[in-house]
């Protein structure tokens, strides 16, 4: 019998002063049995960074045809395809062909090694952006994971803070590849 996803609920308050985006999102997060708290929380941070009324979690790990999160327009065209982790170059090139923009958030100790191995194969992907979160930071985020969460994300002058109760984590993004 296949293991089922564990459902997490999060009330996410976003104050993104850089984009002028202020909203509350009630998220239902399906955590695949093979997914860690760390990866799930990086997905939540990525969601907060790109939040909009049409942004949604995809099936991610459990479906190779969907991203971890995405935004579609009213015609079902994919405006943003978001991946978390270290996807292979074929998956990213396929996503770049399907979406207006593709963004990846890597977070493991070996992220720089992964990137060095595949970056030359992704040079032609002008609609791809790859950002890295230090593994120490993602491990701190994992400590916030609970089945029911009250989270606040503040973004100002490129600085990102995620808070839950008395816990707060500053998230610094290292740019591996920017659009263009």
From TrEMBL:
This is YaeQ family protein. It comes from Undibacterium flavidum.
């Amino acid at each position: 019998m296949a293991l089922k996803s564990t459902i997490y609920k999060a009330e996410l308050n976003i104050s993104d002063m850089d984009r002028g985006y202020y909203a509350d999102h009630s998220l239902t997060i399906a955590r695949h049995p093979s997914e860690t708290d760390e990866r799930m929380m990086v997905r939540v941070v990525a969601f907060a960074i790109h939040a909009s009324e049409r942004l949604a979690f995809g099936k991610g790990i459990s479906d190779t045809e969907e991203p971890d999160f995405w935004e579609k327009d009213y015609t079902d065209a994919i405006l943003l395809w978001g991946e978390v982790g270290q996807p292979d170059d074929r998956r990213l090139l396929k996503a770049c062909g399907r979406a207006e923009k593709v963004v990846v958030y890597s977070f493991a100790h070996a992220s720089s090694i992964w990137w060095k191995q595949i970056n030359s194969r992704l040079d032609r992907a002008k609609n791809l952006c790859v950002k890295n979160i230090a593994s120490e930071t993602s491990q701190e985020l994992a400590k916030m994971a609970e089945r029911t969460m009250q989270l606040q994300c503040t973004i100002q002058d490129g600085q990102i803070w995620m808070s839950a109760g008395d816990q707060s984590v500053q998230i610094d993004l290292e740019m591996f590849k920017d659009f263009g």
